[in-house]
Structure formats: structure tokens, C-alpha cells
Design goal:
The protein has 155 residues and is α+β, with helices and mostly antiparallel strands. Helices cover 23% and strands 25% of the residues. A five-stranded mixed sheet has the order 1-2-3-4-5, with helices on one face. The longest helix has 13 residues, at 95-107. The radius of gyration is 18 Å and the shape is globular.
Length: 155
């Protein structure tokens, strides 16, 4: 199977099923599309150089089988993978995801970026595919708002 990336700046080209398939998603699909409409371009129709939304195309049938969304952090010289989503029928036991990571590495080869980070609930897969645990720990602080009816006392 031959694949290619196509970077898009119109979020409506991304099939909804691929966003719905993102198991780590904690936001409504509609909010994803609203957000993408604000960050993919610079307001004048040019690509935003810090946000990349790429369709993954299976070339033989010219079929959209997934997408890769990543952000560039020039302050830290790193790339942050927000989402990799591939239709289950096209995953090929992780081969497609490995291809995505190889393509990303090739695309970044002649840049100053020296790290790719991601956040996932499937750390075992990531560790098996070259990711190391970060020195940083994700922490959460829940906001308790007055009148929210959450039954929580103020701290």
C-alpha cells in the first residue's frame, strides 16, 4: 500500500469519521472543526506555519484513510503530535502508524527540531515505536466554580 500526506487548510476536507475515531479525544467533534477553522491559516488564507493538518491518502484508491495533526513549538525546537487517526481497516497492525512517524522524521530531517512529543493513553505502543517517557509529568488541577452544582467544597 502506497500512501502520501496532503497538508490541508480547509478542515472540512477531513472526514468526520476520522475525528470520531480518535479514542483519546475529550472534546466534541464539532469543537474540533471550529478550532481548526481558526488555526490552520494566518487569516489571509496562507498556511499557519505552526499548525499542520495532513490527510493520509492511500494512493492506489485515492482514499483518505487517516490524518495527522501536529503543532510546531519553535521555542522548544519540538513538534507535538496532537492526533494520529487511521481507519481501523487500514492500520495493518501498526504499520501505517510507523509509516506516519517515518514520514514525519523525514520531513523534519533538515530542520532544527530535535524532539517529537505526544500525549496518549496508549503508552506501550508508543514505547514500542521509539518514544521514551518524558522527564515531564502531566498534572491536572480541577477548577471548581461557584454555582456549578458539582457538590465540591471550595479549597
Amino acid at each position: 500500500m502506497t500512501m502520501k500526506f496532503i497538508r490541508i487548510k480547509d478542515e472540512k476536507l477531513l472526514p468526520k469519521r476520522l475525528v470520531e475515531n480518535n479514542k483519546d479525544r475529550s472534546y466534541p467533534v464539532e469543537r474540533f472543526y471550529q478550532y481548526m477553522a481558526t488555526v490552520l491559516t494566518d487569516g489571509q488564507g496562507n498556511f499557519n506555519p505552526f499548525e499542520y493538518l495532513n490527510l493520509i491518502i492511500e494512493e492506489e484508491h485515492n482514499e483518505i484513510i487517516g490524518y495527522l495533526w501536529y503543532s510546531i513549538n519553535i521555542l522548544e525546537n519540538e513538534v507535538f503530535i496532537n492526533t494520529i487517526s487511521v481507519d481501523k481497516a487500514h492500520r495493518k497492525n501498526g504499520q501505517v502508524l510507523n509509516w506516519v512517524l517515518q514520514e514525519l522524521e523525514t520531513a523534519l530531517e533538515n530542520t532544527d527540531f530535535d524532539c517529537v512529543k505526544t500525549l496518549s493513553s496508549r503508552s506501550a505502543w508508543h514505547k514500542n515505536n521509539g518514544f521514551d517517557p518524558s522527564k515531564y509529568v502531566l498534572l491536572e488541577y480541577k477548577l471548581y466554580k461557584a454555582g456549578a452544582g458539582n457538590g465540591q467544597d471550595k479549597r
